[in-house]
């Protein structure tokens, strides 16, 4: 039994590792693939499918045998990892990231169920806690492993590593996992009903809206002016698609990806807004601090990963502290307000970073940021689960995760657009003799060897201004999360009956 549960935890480990290992590797990836042009897709493609299909996989687990479905999600994740590891160009890499995100969403949705059915009730909290620890360990190891692989072998090992671990874990689950005979978890339904329950139209509208937004951010100010019909058309299309999602979800009712009767309740829509912005602001820092370290400070990928440790360790420890604080006070809103306020200040401190900033400053800023982004990070989820009936917990959880992951997809593309546009504008104004097109296509570390030494300093300054622009995006997102925290109902969480949303 221990072997089976360990296999599930390793599946979750490689899935969660994929969220953090890429950030440190991106500067090296840009050296091989089309420079900076495709960077917004490297993170957003994974988060787009991960968030978009989270709810759908939850529905699939209800209607398709658990073991078959879980093994399918692992197969998709492994295929995506293999495509990334062997990708000959940026397009193939992005496709691999999207496939891995699709599989990862299913791993995240099904892991808790597999553990629940494979363990005795008295031992179940221990294993569920182990999953939370796994996410924390992956968050700490991700940046370091990304740096080690990029520096010592190749960034492709960031994805090759998933193959032996995932295959071994999948084999154990295939051989050892059996759904208990008294656990009837598959709901009988026609194939048409099974398909409708996954809300394919809702997923398609969400994916299309994100893709249009990313394409607009990728083109705006670079291949097309911001006021061009191409960019404006894509932005308008993204907005229209998101608007169309609302009546469609209302029409779908209980089949919806975002269940209307739940999301219309204040505690859930306000918590979703908070999580959308709060998680997105943290992810922007997680992805662009490595570019600051490697491109501006010119440190190796390994050292860059080590330099990220103050924040990720603080986040891991803060998550534990946040759970303890909640158990003692029972009031989630004050820490949510304080956390978002400190996150806004922390993002502002990162904005002050410059070429040659002392170690003490970026270490201190990261520790402060880690505390800010960790203690209340799970509180939106706690609020959602505490205020719905037991049969709605999975749907409420899926809505919070949907908001968090989709927020990261939108934020990374917006941050990359800000980064590239500011970099181009700086070089055009201060070093017009340097080809901005060549800078963009060279890569985040390759420019130091591709350009003469007298031009490298100006490019580094341009990179610094671009990174600052991404920190400005984080400031804005953290600020919105601070304001949205005041919309969350001020209630003490207890173990009684969920509160009704009367008056909301």
UniProtKB/TrEMBL annotation:
Its main location: membrane. It is found in: Membrane. Residues 1-16 form the signal peptide. GO terms for cellular component: plasma membrane. InterPro entries: MFS, MFS_dom, MFS_trans_sf. Pfam families: MFS_1 (PF07690). PROSITE patterns: MFS. Keywords: Membrane, Signal, Transmembrane, Transmembrane helix, Transport. The chain crosses the membrane at residues 39-57, 69-88, 94-115, 127-148, 154-177, 198-217, 229-246, 267-289, 309-326, 333-351, 363-381, 393-415, 469-488. It is a multi-pass membrane protein. CDD domains: MFS_Azr1_MDR_like. This is Efflux pump antibiotic resistance protein. The lineage of its organism: Eukaryota, Fungi, Dikarya, Ascomycota, Pezizomycotina.
């Amino acid at each position: 039994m221990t072997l089976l549960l360990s296999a599930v935890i390793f599946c979750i480990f490689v899935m969660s590792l994929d969220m953090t290992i890429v950030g440190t590797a991106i500067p090296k990836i840009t050296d091989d693939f089309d420079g900076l042009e495709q960077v917004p897709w490297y993170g957003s493609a994974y988060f787009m499918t991960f968030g978009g299909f989270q709810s759908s996989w939850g529905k699939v687990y209800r209607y398709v045998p658990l073991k078959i479905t879980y093994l399918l999600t692992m197969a998709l994740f492994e295929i995506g990892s293999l495509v990334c590891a062997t990708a000959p160009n940026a397009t193939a890499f992005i496709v691999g990231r999207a496939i891995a995100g699709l599989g990862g969403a299913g791993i995240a949705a099904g892991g808790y169920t597999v553990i629940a059915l494979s363990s005795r009730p008295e031992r179940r909290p221990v294993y569920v806690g182990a999953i939370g620890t796994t996410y924390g360990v992956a968050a700490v190891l991700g940046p370091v492993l990304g740096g080690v692989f990029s520096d010592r072998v190749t960034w492709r090992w960031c994805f090759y590593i998933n193959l032996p671990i995932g295959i071994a874990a999948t084999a154990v689950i295939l051989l050892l996992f059996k759904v208990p005979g008294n656990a009837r978890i598959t709901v009988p339904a026609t194939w048409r009903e099974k398909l409708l329950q996954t809300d394919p139209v809702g997923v398609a509208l969400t994916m299309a809206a994100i893709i249009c937004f990313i394409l607009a951010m990728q083109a705006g100010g670079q291949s097309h002016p911001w006021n061009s019909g191409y960019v404006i058309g894509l932005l308008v299309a993204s907005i229209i698609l998101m608007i169309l999602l609302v009546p469609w979800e209302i029409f779908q009712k209980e089949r919806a990806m975002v269940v209307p009767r739940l999301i219309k309740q204040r505690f859930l829509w306000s918590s979703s807004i908070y999580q959308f912005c709060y998680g997105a602001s943290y992810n922007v820092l997680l992805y662009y601090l490595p570019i600051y370290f490697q491109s501006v400070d010119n440190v190796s990928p390994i050292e860059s990963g080590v330099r990220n440790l103050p924040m990720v360790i603080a986040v891991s420890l803060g998550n534990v502290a946040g759970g303890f604080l909640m158990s003692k006070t029972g009031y989630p809103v004050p820490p949510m307000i304080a956390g978002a306020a400190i996150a806004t200040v922390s993002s502002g401190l990162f904005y002050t970073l410059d070429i040659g900033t002392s170690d003490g400053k970026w270490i201190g800023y990261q520790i402060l940021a880690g505390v800010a982004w960790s203690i209340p990070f799970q509180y939106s989820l706690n609020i959602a689960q505490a205020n719905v009936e037991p049969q709605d917990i999975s749907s409420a959880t899926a809505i919070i995760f949907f908001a968090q992951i989709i927020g990261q997809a939108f934020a990374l593309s917006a941050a990359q657009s800000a980064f590239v546009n500011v970099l181009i504008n700086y070089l055009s104004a201060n070093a017009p003799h340097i080809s901005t097109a060549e800078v963009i296509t060279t890569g985040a570390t390759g420019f130091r060897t591709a350009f003469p030494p007298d031009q490298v300093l100006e490019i580094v300054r341009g990179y610094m201004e671009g990174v600052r622009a991404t920190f400005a995006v984080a400031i804005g997102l953290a600020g919105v999360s601070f304001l949205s925290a005041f919309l969350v109902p001020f209630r003490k969480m207890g173990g009684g009956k969920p509160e009704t949303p009367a008056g909301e």
